[in-house]
């Protein structure tokens, strides 16, 4: 039976990091909502802000490389949907 190896490319690694980053942000917000200690909440908020900043840096990098396409702003998304719908009728 031949052995197959799969290698991760940069895009795979960045997308995995984005997934993990989103999960970490979600987990911190849940912990923040459950915390009863003011000093602990403050630490969680600081950590959450740091994670969010790093997530945006990573997502900006991935977007520049065309490895990640974030959602458009709501008005832009609506206009794109309208344009797509109008073009379907032609």
Annotate the secondary structure layout.
Blueprint: H1 10-34, H2 38-64, H3 74-88
Helix pairs in contact: 1-2
Word description of this protein:
The N and C termini lie far apart (about 55 Å). This protein has one domain. Helices cover about 75% and strands about 0% of the residues. The longest helix has 27 residues, at about 40-65. It has helices at about 10-35, 40-65, 75-90. α1 (about 10-35) packs antiparallel against α2 (about 40-65). The chain is mostly helical. The protein is flat, with a radius of gyration of 19 Å. It comes from Desulfosporosinus orientis (strain ATCC 19365 / DSM 765 / NCIMB 8382 / VKM B-1628 / Singapore I). This is Coat F domain-containing protein.
Structure in a nutshell:
The chain is mainly alpha-helical and 90 residues long. It is built from 3 helices and no strands. It has one domain.
């Amino acid at each position: 039976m031949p052995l197959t190896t799969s290698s991760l490319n940069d895009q795979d690694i960045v997308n995995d990091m984005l997934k993990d980053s989103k999960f970490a942000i979600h987990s911190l917000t849940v912990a923040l909502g459950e915390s009863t200690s003011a000093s602990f909440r403050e630490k969680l908020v600081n950590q959450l802000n740091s994670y969010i900043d790093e997530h945006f840096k990573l997502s900006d990098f991935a977007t520049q490389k065309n490895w990640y396409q974030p959602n458009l702003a709501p008005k832009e998304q609506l206009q794109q949907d309208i344009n797509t719908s109008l073009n379907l009728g032609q």
